[in-house]
Amino acid sequence: GQNIDQPTEMTATEGAIVQINCTYQTSGFNGLFWYQQHAGEAPTFLSYNVLDGLEEKGRFSSFLSRSKGYSYLLLKELQMKDSASYLCASMDSNYQLIWGAGTKLIIKP
Amino acid sequence: GAVVSQHPSWVICKSGTSVKIECRSLDFQATTMFWYRQFPKQSLMLMATSNEGSKATYEQGVEKDKFLINHASLTLSTLTVTSAHPEDSSFYICSAPQGDVHNEQFFGPGTRLTVL
Fold first, then answer.
1. Residues B23-37: what's their mean pLDDT?
2. In chain B, positions 5-34, which contact chain A (CB-CB < 8 Å)?
3. What pLDDT score does B101 carry?
4. Distant-in-sequence, close-in-space partners of A89: CB < 8 Å, separation ≥ 6
5. Which residue of A19, A97, B49, B72 is most buried, as measured by CB atoms within 10 A?
């Protein structure tokens, strides 16, 4: 079956670094997406990885290991506005996104 | 990035009535749009794939006669919840890929439906 696993909730301190892990098992693979979703709002795109390695985009970086079925989202210099849910999604062979349940990130001052 | 709008943002209706939700791609054409439903503290659940000029593809367990989808043009898809019941209360979100389906999906702001 298809499955995406990520932690339910994480807590971090303002200014610190946090890594949110995601493991996936999908029928085929056409890329791994990370989205940010604030409460009551729709998701917004953060990153897309289809090749192994680290993609850096400002304070956010995303890593992919296809052989391990593993990705992580790294957030640096955390700000209070980063408090949100972070959704991991894998695109399968039919180009359909399979979504994780999301990781709620709580930032403390 | 591309912009997707949804209307209405929120709606409250009585049980048994029908509700129409519109999803528009404002600055690009979308031959495919996706409709999701999200219950509180849960992940996005794909309901159906809307295809311009042809029938929508529904996910297993989603009643196509209850959730009517019409993709009338390259910029508009509508979802009609027919004979809504309280258990249909949820956050409905549409998304559209710009161009190739490999690309990131652009999400609408969502529609919060409350059925009394």
1. 92
2. 34
3. 60
4. A4, A32, A33, A34, A35, A97, A98, A99, A100
5. A97
pLDDT under 70: residue ranges of chain A: none
Q: Which of B57, B50, B55, B56 is nearest to B25 (CA)?
A: B50
Q: Which residue of A has its CA nearest to B1?
A: A45
User: Quick one: what percent of chain B has pLDDT higher than 90?
Assistant: 74
CA dist B14 to B36, B61, B114, Å? 22, 24, 9
Distance between CA B58 and CA B63 in Å, rounded?
Answer: 8
Provide the shortest C-alpha distance from residue A38 to chain B (in Å). 11
Mean pLDDT of B70-95: 94
**Whole-number Cα distances in Å, A93 to A83, A98, B12, B70, B100:** 32, 11, 38, 26, 14
Residue with tokens 């349940």: A101
pLDDT at B100 over 80: no
